[in-house]
C-alpha cells in the first residue's frame, strides 16, 4: 500500500518525462540508494513520454510512482500514483476539479490503495506550476502553519508538499509547516544544489525531493541521497 510506503521515504528524485536524461545519468539516479523515483512535471507531459521514461526506470529495482498533472497522461504499470491538490489557490480546478474529471473518466478502474493525495502549497511565484494554478505564493509563516493544519487536521491528507520548485526555500517556512503537522508527512522540494541545503531541509522535512539538479549535475544529485539520509530530523522546540 502506497500510504505505508511513503512513511519510509527520506529522499526522492523527481524526473520530468519532458526532459532529456542520458542512460548513464538515469542509471546513476536509479542505483543511487534513493527511496523512490517520482515521474511527473508541469508541461509537455504526455502518455508517450511518461511511458518511455517508466520503461527505462523499470530496468532498475527502484520504487517508481507517477505524480499526475494531467489525466490523459496516466500510465498503468507504476508502483503507485501521487495526486496533487493545490491548497493555496482559489482555482477549484486545481483543488478538486481535475480530480473529479479523472474519476468520472476512469471510475471503477482506479486502484485506490495505490493512490495518495498530496496537499500542495506552492511558494515560488515564478515556478511554472505557480503560474498555471494561479496560486497565492506570497505567504507568511503563520499562513503556512495554517495550511499545514488544514491539510493535516481538517482534510487528513497523507502528504503536505511544500513546493519551491526551481528555487531554494526558507528553513523558517519548513519549520512553520512542521508546527502544523501531526499526521501528514512533510515533503520538501525546491532548489537543492549542495550539501548544506540538502542537510538544512532534511533537518525539518520528512522527505526531501530533488529534481532539477539531476539534469545539470548528476554526480551532485546522487550525493544528495547520502546528505539527506545522514541527517537526523530535528525536533521542534
Ligand atoms: C519539483 O519539488 C521538486 O517539483 C523538486 O524541485 O526541481 O527545484 O529540485 P527542484
TrEMBL record:
Write out the GO MF terms: heptaprenylglyceryl phosphate synthase activity; magnesium ion binding
Q: Which terms under GO biological process does the entry name? A: glycerophospholipid biosynthetic process
* Keyword Metal-binding (UniProt): yes
Cofactor(s) required, per the database record: Mg(2+)
Q: Which reaction does it catalyse?
A: sn-glycerol 1-phosphate + all-trans-heptaprenyl diphosphate = 3-heptaprenyl-sn-glycero-1-phosphate + diphosphate
Does the record carry Nucleotidyltransferase as a key word?
A: no
Q: Where does Mg(2+) bind?
A: 16, 42
Q: Which Pfam families has this protein been placed in?
A: PcrB (PF01884)
The catalytic activity of this protein is classed by the Enzyme Commission as 2.5.1.n9
State the coiled-coil residue ranges. none
Which residues bind sn-glycerol 1-phosphate per the record? 14, 161-166, 191, 211-212
Pathway involvement of the protein, from the record: Membrane lipid metabolism; glycerophospholipid metabolism
Keywords in alphabetical order, please.
Lipid biosynthesis, Lipid metabolism, Magnesium, Metal-binding, Phospholipid biosynthesis, Phospholipid metabolism, Transferase
Task: List, alphabetically, the PANTHER family matched.
Answer: HEPTAPRENYLGLYCERYL PHOSPHATE SYNTHASE, PTHR40029
- Give the family this protein belongs to, as stated in its UniProt record: Belongs to the GGGP/HepGP synthase family. Group I subfamily.
Summarizing the function annotation, the protein's role is: Prenyltransferase that catalyzes in vivo the transfer of the heptaprenyl moiety of heptaprenyl pyrophosphate (HepPP; 35 carbon atoms) to the C3 hydroxyl of sn-glycerol-1-phosphate (G1P), producing heptaprenylglyceryl phosphate (HepGP). This reaction is an ether-bond-formation step in the biosynthesis of archaea-type G1P-based membrane lipids found in Bacillales.
Task: Fill in the subunit field for this protein.
Answer: Homodimer.
Q: What is the protein's name according to its record?
A: Heptaprenylglyceryl phosphate synthase
Q: What is the organism field in this record?
A: Thermoflavimicrobium dichotomicum
This chain is encoded by the gene named: pcrB
Amino acid at each position: 500500500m502506497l500510504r505505508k510506503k511513503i512513511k519510509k521515504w527520506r529522499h526522492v528524485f523527481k524526473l520530468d518525462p519532458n526532459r532529456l536524461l542520458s542512460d548513464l545519468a538515469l542509471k546513476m539516479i536509479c542505483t543511487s540508494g534513493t527511496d523512490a523515483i517520482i515521474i511527473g512535471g508541469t508541461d509537455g507531459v504526455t502518455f508517450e513520454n511518461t511511458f518511455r521514461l517508466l520503461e527505462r526506470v523499470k530496468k532498475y529495482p527502484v520504487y517508481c510512482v507517477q505524480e499526475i498533472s494531467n489525466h490523459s497522461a496516466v500510465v498503468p504499470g507504476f508502483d503507485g500514483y501521487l495526486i496533487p491538490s493545490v491548497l493555496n489557490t482559489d482555482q477549484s480546478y486545481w483543488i478538486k476539479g481535475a480530480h473529479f474529471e479523472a474519476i468520472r473518466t476512469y471510475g471503477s478502474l482506479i486502484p485506490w490503495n495505490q493512490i495518495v493525495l498530496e496537499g500542495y502549497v506552492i511558494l515560488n511565484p515564478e515556478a511554472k506550476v505557480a503560474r498555471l494554478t494561479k496560486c497565492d505564493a506570497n505567504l507568511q509563516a503563520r499562513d503556512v502553519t495554517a495550511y499545514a493544519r488544514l491539510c493535516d487536521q481538517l482534510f487528513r491528507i497523507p502528504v503536505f508538499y511544500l513546493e519551491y520548485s526551481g528555487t531554494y526555500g526558507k528553513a523558517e517556512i519548513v519549520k512553520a509547516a512542521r508546527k502544523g503537522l501531526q499526521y501528514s508527512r512533510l515533503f520538501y522540494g525546491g532548489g537543492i544544489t549542495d550539501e548544506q541545503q540538502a542537510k538544512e531541509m532534511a533537518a525539518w522535512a520528512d522527505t526531501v525531493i530533488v529534481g532539477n539538479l539531476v539534469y545539470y549535475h548528476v554526480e551532485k544529485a546522487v550525493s544528495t541521497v547520502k546528505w539527506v539520509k545522514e541527517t537526523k530530523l530535528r525536533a521542534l522546540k
